[in-house]
Write a structure and sequence with these properties.
Blueprint lengths: L14 E3 L4 E8 L5 E5 L4 E6 L2 E2 L6 E2 L1 E4 L4 E7 L5 E6 L2 H5 L3 E6 L24 E6 L1
The structure holds copper (II) ion.
Length: 135
């Protein structure tokens, strides 16, 4: 399966944040594939790749190319309240479940996946990705 936090949308894996919080994410790619992990509404600051801290000027990206078995440490400032997608930009992977929501505490939506809209995430194959949020 293609997972985030061991789950796939719409069954969990979301990241709860509080406005003003600095959210650190430890992204572990446990697959043999590339995953271009993209966050909406925010920018990551790259802290380290495979445990090696970034040197020189800060790197700010909204999409990070996480290679096979790579580990990325990134952080973002939760300064844009809402419900934002965090997903692999290989859209087949996202459809297979490699997507999550950044959910600000106190923000809700009346819409559900799998409703009459017909929006249903697909099912996937083999092992996935672990994303841990330090909240
Ligand atoms: Cu992917």
């Amino acid at each position: 399966m293609h997972f985030i936090n061991g789950r796939r949308r719409p069954d969990g894996g979301d990241v709860q944040v509080t406005e003003g919080q600095v959210v650190r994410m430890h992204i572990v790619n446990k697959t043999g594939e590339w995953h271009t992990m993209h966050i909406h509404g925010h920018e990551f600051t790259v802290l380290a790749v495979d445990g090696r801290p970034i040197q020189g000027s800060p790197i700010h990206l909204d999409t990070i190319p996480v290679g096979p078995n790579q580990v990325w440490d990134v952080a973002f400032l939760a300064d844009n309240p809402g419900l934002w997608m965090f997903h692999c930009h290989v859209l087949l992977h996202a459809r297979m479940g490699m997507s999550a929501m950044i959910v600000y505490r106190g923000i809700q939506t009346p819409y559900n996946m799998g409703s009459r809209s017909g929006q249903r995430p697909g099912v996937g194959a083999v092992v996935g990705m672990a994303t841990l949020a330090d909240v």
